[in-house]
Structures are given as C-alpha cells and as structure tokens.
Specification:
Order of helices and strands: EHEHEEHHEHEHEHEHEE
Number of strands: 10
Number of helices: 8
Shape: elongated
Strand content: 5-15%
Strand order of the largest sheet: 7-6-5-8-9-10
Distance between the termini: 32 Å
Radius of gyration: 20 Å
C-alpha cells in the first residue's frame, strides 16, 4: 500500500495509526496516481469512486483469493478475527488519547438522520435503567439541543463531542461510541458499524451485561451480529 506524504501527515495528525507500507513525496505520488487504473474489486467501491487505484496485472487480487486468505491462520494471526484487530490498531492512538465523557459507565447513542431522540432515551431507560449518563454522537447541533431539552428534569446527564461538524468531532464520536459501556445506534450507518466493531473487540474477553448493544434500525439487540466474524 502506497500513500502520499501529504496524506500520511494528515492521517497521523488525526491520531490514527499508519496502515501503509510506503509513502511517496507528493509529486511522484501524483505521477503514479495519474498512470494507475481504478481498482476493480467490489469492496474498493466502499471507499468511494476513484478513492483507490491499483498497479497490478489483471487477476492479481480477487474476491476468491481474499476469501481463501480470510480462512487461514495467516490472516493477522487470528483465525476469523483479523479485520477487527486491524481496525483496533488503526484507531488505537485515537482511543488511547481520547478523554472519555464520563468516569463511570455510560450509554453512547449514535443519532442518525431522521431519528427521533426521544426513542433513544426510551431505549436507554428500558435496557439500562441503572445508567444515567448519555453520550450523544452526532454532527447535528439541533440533535444536541433536542437531547439536552429531552434530558431536562430527568435523571439523565447528556454530553457530546466538542466542535460539532468538524472531522475531529466525527472521530471523537466514534471513540466515544467505541469506549462506551452500552451502545445504541443503527446498522444502516457506517459510523455506527465501525464503532460497534471497535467496541466489541475493545471489550472482548470482559464480562459484559446482556444486552450491551441495541440496533434501532433493525429493532433488535446487536451484541452478536450474524454477519460479523467476532464471536461473543
């Protein structure tokens, strides 16, 4: 994997661990980028159009080769657990430096677009009535205001990331979700899926009350997702 020098600086400045093998000075990287072709693997589309380019002969990488590799102990040294560990390595510096919103247990709530804040308060009360601390993960100031109004006069304490709508706040939202004791969000959100995976591997092997995760999109407990490889 090769990245530009400018990209590597921005990435590490955000307190994310390097994932690349080499970095090139910007001028040389741009020359190779213009000459390279888009990666044609379906999974590459998840990063957006033209986000990745490949220099390799046709068929060098394929879904079949990937699936075969995933089923070997060479996959990050942990059979079926590899990508969770890689995600944790990547976000590790951010998680270590992150100042958690509470010293005690808390429920982290990822509020997506068109979601009702009141629904999440109800879920927190239903599943974890012993917990009064809520962390609201959002980039929408109106949702924060609605959550503060919803908590007024109740047992709930509400906090959120500083500097809403910034890239730093988005990463702090993921860190807050990943570090939480209990987690609520929707599996239709990429941010929530990343945070849920980080939360699972970060607390893997610890005793956790059941449930610790609720998927408000699918309306079900998400301690164990059938489409993920990490076992509970």
């Amino acid at each position: 994997l090769v990245v530009s020098e400018a990209f590597s600086i921005e990435w590490t400045k955000a307190r994310l661990a390097p994932f690349w093998d080499f970095r090139l000075v910007d001028a040389l990287f741009q020359v190779r980028w213009r000459l390279a072709k888009d990666c044609r693997m379906p999974w590459a589309r998840a990063f957006g159009p033209h986000a990745l380019k490949c220099e390799m002969p046709p068929g060098y990488l394929s879904i079949a080769k990937r699936d075969k590799f995933w089923r070997t102990p060479l996959y990050n040294g942990h059979l079926f657990h590899g990508w969770y560990n890689l995600w944790l390595q990547t976000f590790g510096p951010r998680l270590v430096s992150y100042l958690q919103p509470y010293n005690l247990t808390y429920v982290a709530i990822h509020v997506g677009q068109r979601s009702k804040v009141a629904d999440f308060f109800f879920i927190a009360q239903e599943f974890w009535p012993q917990t009064s601390n809520l962390f609201i993960a959002t980039d929408d100031k109106s949702i924060v205001q609605e959550a503060a109004e919803q908590a007024n006069g109740t047992k709930f304490n509400v906090s959120w990331a500083a500097g809403l709508e910034s890239a730093s706040a988005s990463l702090d939202n993921i860190a807050g979700l990943a570090s939480s004791t209990f987690l609520v969000g929707g599996s239709n959100s990429k941010d929530f899926r990343v945070a849920r995976a980080l939360n699972a591997v970060l607390h893997h092997g610890e005793f956790r009350p059941h449930p610790w995760c609720y998927d408000n999109f699918r309306k079900r407990v998400c301690d164990c997702w059938p489409d993920t490889v990490l076992q509970c």
